[in-house]
Amino acid sequence: MTKRIAALLLLAALVAVPSAWAEAGKTLTIYNWTDYMPQSVLDEFTAETGIKVIYSTYDSNEAMFTKLKLMGGKGYDIVVPSTYFLSLMREQGLLAEIDPKGLTNFANLDPEVLNKPFDPENRYSIPYMWGSTGLMVNTAQVAPGTVTSWADLKRPELAGRILMSSDLRDGLGVALKALGHSMNTRDEAEIKAAYEWLLELKPAVRMFTSDGAKQVFAGEEAVVGLIFNGDASQIREEMPELEYVYPREGAMLWMDNLCIPAGAQNKEGAMLFIDFLLRPEIAARIAEEFRYTTPNKAAQALLPEELRNDPIVSPRPEDLVNSEFQTGVGDALPVYEKYWEMLKVAGD
Amino acid sequence: MHDGALFRRICILGVAAWLLVFALAPNAGLLVVSFLTRHPEDFVAPGLTLEAYGRLMDPTFAAIFWESVRLAALATLVCLLAGYPFAYGIARASRRWRPWLLLLVVVPFWTNSLIRTYAVILILKSRGVLSNLLEALGLTSGPVSLLYTDTAMFIGFTYTLLPFMVLPLFAAIEKLDRNLLDAARDLGAGSLRAFWNVTLPLTMPGILAGSMLVFLPALGMFYIPELLGGGKSMLLGNFIKNQMLLARDWPLGAAASTVLTVALAVMIVLWRLATLRARQDEDDDILTEGAP
Amino acid sequence: MTRKLRALWMVLVFAFLYLPIVVVIVYSFNDATYSTAWRGFTWKWYERLAANGPLMDAALRTLFVAVVSATAATALGTLAALALNRYRFAGRKVLLGSILVLTVSPDIVMGISLLIFFVTLGASLGFGTLLVSHITLCLPFVTLTVLARLASFDENLVEAARDLGASEWRAFRHVILPLILPAVGAGWLLSFTLSMDDVLISFFVTGPSYEILPLKIYSMVRLGVKPDINALSAIMFTLTVACVLLAHAMTRTRRH
């Protein structure tokens, strides 16, 4: 009996294999982080164009890249890689070319964030949102003004109360910046020096995490450490004593970019969608929700005043001195990985 | 007889086919990958080499391996100590209640484990549920935080893996013949001795199954060490995940995974030899003993 | 004395298991997005959840795939245990070995190798591929649990049944199955639990048309897990408890 039921269920399973692919032209499959695009924006796009949006999620650039690569660049119409994955995906032929002439709203974009080394002339990517990784300081626990640089993490009074990133590029990036090197260096000697810097810091680190930073600072388990600017802006609404600091040696910048995979089935739909997101009012709504920086100049003007004047969400040029965008490091990645493992293994 | 052979054949062939396709084939592939050349873009390139295994012969990997095994073994021990009396209690409850108690054990686990881990954080954090409770009871003065310690990590491991210990234990204990225990007592054995000489050996298959189902997943845990333990050390699960996704060094990831499998096989063989020596008359696998 | 201690221990363990769930439910009514302090009562997370159709869909899909894969894995896993325990055949050790290898395979490795397998076959990723993968994931858990129960199984019972003319299937159905039923039930519950919670394998083997809840939740960590997930967890928990109580009440009335 059990077996008969099992057989029936299996049969049902095989019959139920999705039929969504059949109507490829009418659907748009987006591959992105959960909730990284407001549902209302997606609904509006569907209402306007009749194209149904399927929103699929990943939890890291690495996982997204591996899956897309194994699927031969097929299965999705839009992906949103960060800067350090963009060049890799482009070089591997995973992305389709985008013609800016097909985008009526392309001119809204801030030229400052276009034509970057990870995608010269933006032939494969359109900026979606960008931001910085800087320092969060709990001013109720740490005297204001004492932490202004990455190097300040070594101040003795912070021992045991530091949040460090569990992402190796961010973690080693902090040390590289503190030592005055580029966070995208491929020089093993510099990476080794960064490892040694972190090894010295490790006993003072309370936890290595990148996923729960907001909760950690809200719960006051750490009083200083890394955070994304958007997270910082959101959490300050509930705890204004938490301050966001652009470190003197330079913040670590990242940008998420709208791309079309080479094997996308609905490239026209994808272009329509990108153009839709580039509308000033849409881009402003998105920026308002996530508190990251919009690359859309026209949208900047539409932001509520408190966000427009907030250096966390709208950084001034002086905030970004020495800052760099995180880019791929190619063959040096295993070197980073090696030193990161050594750091984790070292006892404290 | 004809009918019996048919059922038997369906049994064996069905299972064998499934395992061949979905277990043996992928693992054979994995074994092959571990001998191929690393290629950061296409994951692997042709060209047989022992390089990946060579790179595993390194103190860093040895430290990761040892630390993972140590933590997983401790977690298994904690689960066993907590789970045995608990499973025993369920198995000794009235027949009508047993299935419901079992259900009660697993129902909390149907809430996503990440969400439950965040809840554990709320309990263990300073000024959290536990901290406030201890302060109210006058056991501590001022807030305490258990977070980002090995204790917190073990609480997390136990909390995530306990049913994988309790359920196999329950299945083994439940069939235990009470008469045997009574007989032992009648012969003058104390409770402890009856337990040691009768209950424990008879429930050993359940202990083994449960330990395996806790120990192996514990090796692969990746977010509990970070969220509760503070992510200060790297465990095998994270190491392999990093090789496959982050460093894109598939041969190294595959080699680490293969080493893990071989280590398990060695453990099982050693265990078997030990039990064989203890019980000379036994001539079968520890896991399937009792077959004709 | 021991009885009382045991009862106390059971209560303590149950408290340990349920305390975090209580915390999740309480926080689903907390009027704070990130702060962990209590900031007043609110229904807003439930309202937000009601407006989040994709999240609810994902939850339903997760439940469905868990029920189907647990059932199939239990059937297959029980047969595997039976074959391993009762029959002698060529390749038996290989079969046992492959079940153990399956248990030890890291999820990430299993996910990637299954994806490569499906892509090679040209299968479209979705419910079917997800189901097959979950069955494979759960299979060893069922088999090991049932094997533990079958150990030192009294073969005379089956012999007796066979002597009385029962076929192998009937002997299984009427003699073996009732004896191993608690283990089969336990195996089903383990499988269901595993399937509900799997992330790494599911990420690789499912497609955009069949996204399940754990994937959505893991993907949320970058932007911060919001309390509407607590609300969803609270609803799912309440529903499962209601179902369990209802089933309990039904079996009781049937018995009376």
Please, could you describe this protein's structure?
The complex is a heterotrimer of chains A (348), B (292) and C (256). By secondary structure, chain A is an alpha/beta fold. Chain A has 13 helices and 10 strands. Chain A folds into 2 domains: 20-130 and 254-314, D-Maltodextrin-Binding Protein, domain 2; 131-253 and 321-345, Periplasmic binding protein-like II (D-Maltodextrin-Binding Protein, domain 2). In chain A, strand 1, helix 2 (39-49) and strand 2 form a beta-alpha-beta unit. In chain A, helix 5 (168-178) packs across helix 6. The longest helix of chain A is centred in the N-terminal third of the chain and has 14 residues, at 2-15. Mean pLDDT of chain B is 87; it is low at 281-286. In chain B, helix 3 (59-92) packs across helix 9 and helix 7 (150-174) packs across helix 9 (191-220). Chain B has 292 residues and is mainly alpha-helical. With 256 residues, chain C is mostly helical. In chain C, helix 2 (44-51) packs across helix 11 and helix 6 crosses helix 8 (168-197). The model of chain C has no long low-confidence stretch (mean pLDDT 90). The chains are: A alpha/beta (348), B mainly alpha (292), C mainly alpha (256). Chains B and C meet through helix 1, helix 3, helix 4, helix 5 and helix 7 of B and helix 1, helix 3, helix 4, helix 5 and helix 6 of C.
List the helices and strands and how they pair.
The complex is a heterotrimer of chains A (348), B (292) and C (256).
Chain A (H helix, E strand, L loop, with lengths): L1 H14 L11 E6 L6 H11 L2 E6 L3 H10 L7 E2 L3 H9 L34 E13 L23 E3 L3 H11 L9 H14 L3 E4 L4 H6 L5 E5 H8 L5 E4 L6 E7 L8 H11 L2 H11 L6 H4 L4 H4 L15 E2 L7 H13 L3
Parallel strand pairs in A: 1-2, 1-3, 5-6, 5-7, 9-10
Antiparallel strand pairs in A: 4-7, 4-8, 4-9
Helix pairs in contact in A: 5-6, 6-13
Chain B lengths: L1 H33 L2 E3 L3 E3 L5 H6 L2 H34 L5 H9 L6 H12 L4 H8 L13 H25 L3 H9 L4 H30 L3 H4 L8 H11 L3 H29 L14
Antiparallel strand pairs in B: 1-2
Helix pairs in contact in B: 1-12, 3-7, 3-9, 7-9, 8-9, 11-12
Chain C lengths: L1 H26 L16 H8 L1 H34 L5 H13 L2 H15 L5 H24 L4 H9 L4 H30 L2 H6 L7 H8 L6 H29 L1
Helix pairs in contact in C: 1-11, 2-11, 3-6, 3-8, 4-6, 6-8, 7-8
